[in-house]
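Progress note, sequence design subtask.
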């Protein structure tokens, strides 16, 4: 606001501010304080009843009897979770509950794989026409071997293959059937009682090691590098043994070391799946990868146990 030159605000006669200063008598804010008498917010709380703000996009805190973040009518003191969506209310989405659901899913997949494998082994061991058909068609062994190799590389190296449903289940199903076929062919070369003995020993070992991995305070998840080195040594040992004339002692030592190594792998993979108190853990999104690791551990233990029994009988 422009003022007349030479006129002071207090000089009302010459066009200045009203006499008594600005603001006018009564002061600013007006008598009774600001906001008006009754306080701010108005009696009845803020916002006043019937004047709740309109809903906005995204999460908005509710004003109600339970306080900030609780919907109206929600019992005070029993607190709804802040930011909880109405569709998932009542579920405790903590790390522990997610991990338990992940473990159940992994073991359900693993049990399905083992049942399919056991069915193939039983068929090839006890059904003579099937055993004769495989012996007359050896190319099926190499077809199954190629499928196992391709599916294993795809699931291990391509994250989208093992995480995207139903593609992950398709690859896992093909791998399981092909691997079960290979194990059935291998088992058909042994007597039925030796195979069933190997199945029983493998089941006992895997159950014991799984319980040990869940109960022990030792953290095996830090041993990944050691296990990798041992695997490379075992691989080199096997390659060298191929060029040595057949020797039951060498075969027995090799099979024993292999069973021991994959027993440690079973503990390692079980603790990776469990997470929690362990230093390293596998993501709950990787349930296919976790089931695949455990399945391979069990299968390798079975193969080495079967080899030990076969050598001992020879």
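Output:
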């Amino acid at each position: 606001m422009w003022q007349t030159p030479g006129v002071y605000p207090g000089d009302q006669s010459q066009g200045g501010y009203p006499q008594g200063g600005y603001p006018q008598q009564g002061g600013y804010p007006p008598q009774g304080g600001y906001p008006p008498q009754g306080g701010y917010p108005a009696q009845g709380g803020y916002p006043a009843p019937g004047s709740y703000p309109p809903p906005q996009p995204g999460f908005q805190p509710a004003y109600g009897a339970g306080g900030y973040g609780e919907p109206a009518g929600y019992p005070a003191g029993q607190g709804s979770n802040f930011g909880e969506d109405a569709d998932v209310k009542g579920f405790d989405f903590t790390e522990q509950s997610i991990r338990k659901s992940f473990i159940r899913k992994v073991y359900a997949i693993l049990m399905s794989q083992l049942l399919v494998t056991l069915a193939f082994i039983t068929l090839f061991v006890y059904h003579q026409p099937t055993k004769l058909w495989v012996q007359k068609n050896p190319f099926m062994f190499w077809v199954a071997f190629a499928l196992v190799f391709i599916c294993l590389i795809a699931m291990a190296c391509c994250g989208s293959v093992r995480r995207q449903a139903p593609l992950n289940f398709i690859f896992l199903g093909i791998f399981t059937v092909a691997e079960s076929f290979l194990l059935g062919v291998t088992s058909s070369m042994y007597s039925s009682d030796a195979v069933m003995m190997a199945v029983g020993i493998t089941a006992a070992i895997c159950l014991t090691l799984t319980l040990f991995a869940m109960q022990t305070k030792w953290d095996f998840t830090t041993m990944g590098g050691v296990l990798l080195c041992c695997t490379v040594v075992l691989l080199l040992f096997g390659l060298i043994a191929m060029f040595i004339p057949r020797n039951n002692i060498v075969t027995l030592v090799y099979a024993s070391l292999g069973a021991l190594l994959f027993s440690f792998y079973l503990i390692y993979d079980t603790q990776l799946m469990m997470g929690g108190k362990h230093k390293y853990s596998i993501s709950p999104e990787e349930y296919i990868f976790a089931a695949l690791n455990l399945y391979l551990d069990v299968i390798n233990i079975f193969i080495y146990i079967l080899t030990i029994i076969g050598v001992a009988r020879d």
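The chain has a mean pLDDT of 77. Work on this subtask will continue into the next period as scheduled.
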